[in-house]
Amino acid sequence: MLIITYLSVLYCNGFSLEYLGFEAKKGLKDDKIFLHVTEI
Questions:
Q1: What letter does residue 23 receive in the DSSP assignment?
Q2: Angle (deg, nearest 10), helices 2-22 and 28-39
Q3: What sections of 1-40 are H helices per DSSP?
Q4: What integer pLDDT is reported at residue 7 of this predicted model?
Q5: Which letter does DSSP use for residue 27 in this model?
Q6: How do the domains of the chain map onto residue ranges?
Q7: For residues 34 and 28, what is the distance between their CA atoms, to the nearest angstrom?
Q8: Most buried residue, 20, 25, 33, 36, by most Cβ within 10 Å?
């Protein structure tokens, strides 16, 4: 579970900008990133 959390943080920080271009490739990850962006 710790690994998943670590990956989630890395994805939110590193894939924050790339998410816009990879939104079509990642479906479930979009939700997590979207929530993170909305929180900010």
A1: T
A2: 90
A3: 2-22, 28-39
A4: 72
A5: S
A6: 2-39
A7: 10
A8: 33
Number of residues written out for the chain: 40
Distance of alpha carbon 40 from alpha carbon 38, whole angstroms: 5
The residue among 22, 1, 24 whose CA lies nearest residue 9 is: 1
Closest CA to 36 of 22, 20, 16: 16
CA-CA distance, 24 to 30, in Å (whole number)? 9
How does pLDDT run across 1-40, given as a tens digit for each residue?
677 777 777 666 665 556 656 665 656 565 666 666 666 5
pLDDT at position 17 is 58
